[in-house]
Design goal:
This protein is α/β, with parallel strands linked by helices. Helices cover 51% and strands 11% of the residues.
Length: 301
């Protein structure tokens, strides 16, 4: 699994982590949805974008990197980037994860951003963050873009400079697990699992965080099977607990609900009425109308 995929999953499930990384209150995440955006008529795809949530009629259709290719329903529910409504306080955040040296990283990033701004002409201001494992990876020339860095419109984030994991919020400590070497990752992961059980009261969030830790461990130990990793960290026993099973069922129900929203436009297209779709999918008529309006808005962009 690619490192950026881990981060985009993390930002999709725990958007507050991104805002903690850039020094903003984690509560800011409530005003955003995490998406990926195609830059039309180019080969560019901006994989990580936090869009102000009010720009979307139905936040449940927000997408993460790769979702459109994995599910045809998801592709039909792509969130419209931004409307031309009055100026919003919340800026757009573009996110880039870079774990290898790339002399073209900033040239590519700014090309993608400016093409997006030209095509969509959003009323919101914008900022960008580039996440590096260490400062030594950040070697690209900035001379053409230095004003964006001095003004802090663009912020590089170096994970190894965030501090000791034990003193960090559990969300940020989980991010740091990605850059731990194999010798220290085992101990750090066990500490994170203990902290998750002690500090996270929400069943759903605890399950998601434990799954994310497990995913990172699979990435860091590619020669080990999922079962071996679960046994090493006691995750197999944890998954049998009532708490975890209830959280799993809750997550499964939420995922089913999102799939229903994505199916609405297809059923309407084959001739079903709003009332028939609502009855078939066990949704309210208003929810079906919202999903249909969102699809119509996307197609008009």
């Amino acid at each position: 699994m690619k490192t950026d995929s881990i981060f985009y999953r993390l930002f999709q499930e725990f958007p507050s982590i991104f805002f903690e990384l850039i020094g903003e209150p984690p509560e800011e995440a409530r005003a955003y949805q995490f998406s990926s955006v195609e830059v039309k008529q180019t080969a560019f795809r901006i994989d990580g974008v936090f869009l102000p949530a009010k720009e979307s009629d139905n936040p449940s259709t927000a997408i993460s990197s790769g979702d459109a290719t994995r599910s045809p329903w998801r592709a039909l529910a792509l969130t419209a980037a931004l409307s031309t409504s009055p100026l919003r306080v919340n800026p757009i955040y573009f996110v880039e994860v870079q774990f290898q040296e790339d002399p073209q990283i900033y040239a590519r990033l700014f090309a993608e951003i400016f093409l997006y701004l030209r095509q969509n002409q959003p009323q919101n201001d914008w900022r960008a963050a580039v996440i590096f494992p260490t400062r030594t990876i950040d070697t690209a020339d900035r001379k053409h873009y230095r004003e964006f860095f001095t003004s802090q419109r663009v912020s590089p984030i170096y994970l190894d400079e965030l501090g000791e994991a034990v003193s960090l919020p559990i969300s940020i400590a989980t991010v740091k697990l990605v850059i731990e070497n194999q010798d220290t990752a085992i101990e750090k992961a066990r500490e994170l699992i203990d902290r998750t059980q002690q500090e996270i009261s929400s069943q759903q969030q605890q399950r998601q965080l434990l799954q994310l830790i497990e995913t990172i461990l699979i990435y860091k130990f590619p020669t080990m099977s999922r079962e071996e990793i679960e046994a090493m960290f006691g995750l197999s026993e944890l998954k049998q607990t009532r708490f975890y099973q209830e959280a799993f069922e809750e997550g499964k129900q939420e995922g089913t609900r999102r799939e229903k929203f994505r199916t609405v436009p297809l059923l309407l297209r084959v001739g079903l009425t709003v009332e028939q779709v609502a009855r078939e999918l066990e949704l309210s008529v208003e929810e079906v109308r919202q999903a249909a309006q969102q699809q119509s808005s996307n197609e008009s962009k």
